[in-house]
Design a protein that fits this description.
elongated; alpha/beta
């Protein structure tokens, strides 16, 4: 499973629209999340209205705050018009300059919905193979894990063996939500592999 993360400021309009449309158009092996750096209390009413017009109900959705875990797990990310407010996402990032629908007339919110729809359709069709094959998030997790292992095993194991073992351990978690404790678990498993000579690369 691959994960696309849509980020805007409030997670009450643009990113909610994008997530819902992506889930409509994307294949089953690519999922979506959305979040905001400063989430609102609820999805904007006009956004709920224009999404109902295309058969999508966002009325029960709650804006979510962007977390470290979401950033770690994303295989592809899209930020939407939030400029410097949007936090760093350590993976492939597209920046869509789309206006915030908050407080805008319903006709303008429809235009924003349609613009996002067009962008999402393109992402969910033309870029699916790139999303599936992008290894940015995996490499970032690997880079986060390696320094401790090199400090401990650098004098007894070749660098390619340390990296290979860590890479194989991390692959076990590519299809599950990555939480900060996963790094602790992956570090422990790789240390055991290298210490006990159980890694297939040894």
């Amino acid at each position: 499973m691959k994960y696309v993360l849509f980020v805007c400021t409030h997670n009450a309009g643009r990113s909610q629209i994008a997530q819902a449309l992506f889930e409509r158009y994307a294949p089953e092996d690519v999922s979506a999340e959305s979040a905001g750096s400063d989430p609102a209390r609820r999805v904007w009413p006009a956004v709920i209205e224009v999404m109902q017009e295309v058969g999508i109900d966002l009325s029960a959705n709650k804006p979510k705050r962007l977390t470290v875990e979401m950033q770690l797990h994303a295989d592809w990310a899209v930020t939407m018009g939030c400029g410097d407010v949007c936090p760093y996402v350590p993976t492939r990032v597209d920046d869509w300059d789309i206006p915030d629908p908050a407080g805008r007339p319903i006709d303008e919110v429809r235009e924003i919905r349609d613009t996002i729809d067009e962008r999402v359709r393109e992402l969910a069709t033309n870029n699916i193979d790139a999303i599936r094959s992008d290894g940015t998030s995996h490499r970032w997790r690997l880079a986060k894990l390696l320094p401790q292992l090199i400090d401990e095993f650098g004098e007894t194991r070749p660098p390619e063996v340390i990296r290979g073992c860590a890479d194989r351990v991390l692959e076990q978690y590519d299809d599950v939500p990555v939480r900060t404790h996963i790094f602790t678990l992956a570090h422990k498993q790789t240390r055991e592999c290298l210490r006990e000579d159980t890694c297939a690369l040894l």
